[in-house]
Write a structure and sequence with these properties.
alpha/beta; 13 strands; 11 helices; 348 residues
């Protein structure tokens, strides 16, 4: 009888969504969140991939961690990984029941379920991105103006290439990925008007295999510098890394890529600073604003960070480094200067 009851308990536990509390995820004291206080804001993160994917999902997870450091004791985090949109509703409901103040569906694929949850629970703040939509008074959206980071990557690629051929491996032609890819085109053309740019899409944000295949096709067509956006881009970087003794390089859309095994091929990368988004949300909640706004991300409001790979300094020091730093200064001074919508892939 005891064994039967134990089996039932275990089966019931396995049937529940898996939630990991950010405070308890690691035993390292330097990354543990401070103890909760009476004004703690509980933030729940729902992602379709994993929090260590060296891309999209990890960027938001790391951003919440940075926000915890910036606002000690104010933010408690939990997360759910590998959540398809069809599963996200159940996770969100559990977080509502557990008293979470902000529930983030990190990806435009969660737009519908987040909108439905927001209507059902008007006293809870929800968020999703990337999107510039305003869908409800208790929903924040966030939109990286990633044409800026794409422009920097394009400048680097356009100056690095020896064959005047570049490859772009995107997920879908929408959202911040579309902005990044088109910014890349404009940046490359600004420093190398004769460059040929091959743009392809896997149709998925997490299809590493197809991303790797697209990258290999670009390389076979002569591309010697490649880039890509979203978590699927890691598959493309892995394909680039297979050419160990060839002058084939990568510029990334997440700085975590430089720390991977394949990172020796990553000359430079930008990252989204989602910490700025989270801090902004918490401050807005403090002011009584529960949503109804889109929070932009750009260099001007510290929504982006950029870095070169110090192991490859000889490849970029001097002309490339100076040009990129000058462009970052321009972005910091004046946002929204890149006309990314003007790019027509059919004319490349």
């Amino acid at each position: 009888m005891k064994k039967s009851m134990l089996a039932i308990v275990l089966m019931s536990a396995l049937a529940l969504p898996i939630f990991a509390n950010g405070q308890n995820e690691t035993a390292k004291p330097e990354t543990a969140a401070p103890a909760a206080t009476s004004n703690t804001v509980k933030v729940a993160l729902i992602v379709e991939n994993t929090i260590d994917d060296k891309g999209w999902c990890q960027a938001m997870y790391d951003g919440i961690k940075e926000a915890q450091k910036e606002m000690p004791g104010r933010i408690e985090m939990a997360y759910s990984e590998k959540m398809k949109p069809v599963d996200a509703g159940s996770a969100a409901r559990q977080y509502v029941a557990d008293g979470y103040n902000i529930i983030i569906g990190h990806g435009a694929q969660y737009a519908n379920v987040i909108t439905e949850m927001a209507d059902e629970f008007p006293d809870v703040t929800f968020a999703f991105g990337t999107s510039s939509q305003i869908v409800a008074d208790n929903v924040f959206t966030y939109m990286p103006e990633s044409e800026e980071t794409g422009y920097l990557s394009g400048m680097i690629a356009g100056m690095l290439t020896k064959k005047d051929k570049l490859g772009v491996v995107g997920p879908v032609d929408g959202g911040d990925s579309a902005r990044y890819n088109r910014g890349f085109v404009l940046g490359a053309q600004s420093v190398n008007p004769s460059v040929k740019i091959m743009v392809g899409h896997t149709g998925s944000f997490s299809d590493y295999i197809k991303a790797g295949q697209l990258a290999k096709t670009d390389i076979q067509e002569g591309a010697d510098v490649l880039t890509g956006s979203s978590q699927q881009a890691l598959g493309a970087l892995r394909s680039v890394a297979e050419y160990k003794d060839k002058d084939i390089w990568w510029v990334g859309q997440d700085m975590a890529q430089m720390a991977t095994e394949e990172g020796y091929k990553c000359v430079a990368a930008s990252s989204y600073n989602y910490g700025a988004v989270i801090v902004s949300m918490v401050k807005k909640l403090d002011a009584g604003v529960k949503g109804g706004e889109c929070i932009p991300m750009n260099f001007n409001n510290n929504g982006f960070v950029f870095g070169f790979n110090p192991s490859l300094k000889s490849m970029y020091e001097g002309k490339i480094e100076d040009a990129v730093n000058a462009q970052i200064a321009k972005f910091k001074a004046t946002p929204n200067t890149i006309d990314w919508k003007s790019v027509d892939y059919s004319k490349l």
